[in-house]
C-alpha cells in the first residue's frame, strides 16, 4: 500500500525541509493498529546534488509517515460526550507536547501538516517490548521493570506537571466509561466464554465493578500502555508510542494493561507480577509522590482493573473477529484466564460472574 500522490509529495518536501541535504529514497507500508490511522516507513538517503560527505546529511536513516485518519478520538469519547469543547489540534500533537515537557521517551515530531492530517515522526525501530521479551536469554522481569520506570514518570510527572490544557486532563476514565467498555462483553463476549449463561443476574455486578473503579483517585494515564506500544532501543531504553488516547485513570489501570494484555501470561508469572507492582509502589515512594491509597487498597484497585480489562477485551476480541479483523480470537482464552484469576480472589464480591465464568 503506497500513500496517495499528494501525501507522498508532502513527505518528500517534509524531509528536505528538515534535512536540506537529504531526500526520500523509498516508502514502505507498515502494518497499522486497530484505528483508521495509516503508517509508512520512509527511507532517507543523501540528496544527489549534495556535496556533503556521504552520511553527513544530519538525517536519520528512516522516519515514520503517519496519516492520522478522519477522526481524532476513539468511539467512546463521542458516544459518552466526554469532551465539553472542540479541540484545535489533533490529540497526538497535544499529548506529545505534554509528554515531551516531562522528558517522556516519545518519538520526535519532525514535521506536521494539520490540513493534510500528516505527520513525519522519529522511527523508534522494530523491536517491541513483547518481541524483546521473547528473545533467547531475555529477562522479562527486567524489561517490564524498565517499562514500569517510565510509567512512574508518566503517572508522577504527568499528573503533577502536565499543562492543564492538555486534552488528556479533560477526559476521565470514569465509571460511565468503564461500564460502557463492558457492553461488548454483555452483547457477545459472555456468550462465547459461557454459552447459555444468563446475563440478567450478572449485570448488577458489572455496574458495581464500574462504580467501584470510579471511586479511585485518577492519574495521567497512557491508556494503552502495553508491550505492542513500547519499543526497546539500545541501552536498553524504552520508547513510547500510541499515546494519543491518554486520559485520567486509576493508576492501576495502566499496570493492568501492561501486565495482563493478550498473552502476557506466558512470561508474566504471578511472582513477576507481584514484584513489578511492588517496584511501582516503591518507585512512587522513592520519588516522594504522596500516595492516596494504602497498599491493600492499591492491590484491590489492581484486581478490579485487571478484571474489567479482561471482560472488556473478551468482548472486543470477539467483535474484532466478527468485524473481519482476524487473529484476535485466540487471545480470548488468555483474557478469560485473567478474569478467572481475579475473580478467584474476590468470590464473595462477584458470585454471579464467578459462577458463569467457572472461577
How would you portray this structure in words?
The protein has 359 residues and is α+β, with helices and mostly antiparallel strands. Helix content is 45%, strand content 14%. The protein has helices spanning 5-18, 75-79, 91-101, 129-133, 140-161, 175-181, 183-193, 203-214, 251-260, 270-286, 295-322, 331-343, 351-357, and strands spanning 22-30, 38-46, 62-67, 109-113, 118-122, 218-221, 230-233, 237-240, 247-250. The strands form 3 sheets. A 5-stranded antiparallel sheet has the order 1-2-3-5-4, with helices on one face. The longest helix is centred in the last third of the chain and has 28 residues, at 295-322. The mean pLDDT is 93.
Question: What's the order of the H and E elements?
Answer: HEEEHHEEHHHHHEEEEHHHHH
Shape verdict = globular
Rg of Cα set? 22 Å
Q: Give unreliable regions as ranges.
A: none
Q: Summarize model confidence as the mean pLDDT.
A: 93
Distance between the termini: 45 Å
Number of helices: 13
Strand order of the largest sheet: 1-2-3-5-4
Number of E strands? 9
Helix fraction bin: 40-55%
How much strand content do the residues show? 5-15%
Find the structural class using helix and strand composition: alpha+beta
* Main sheet overview: 5 strands, antiparallel
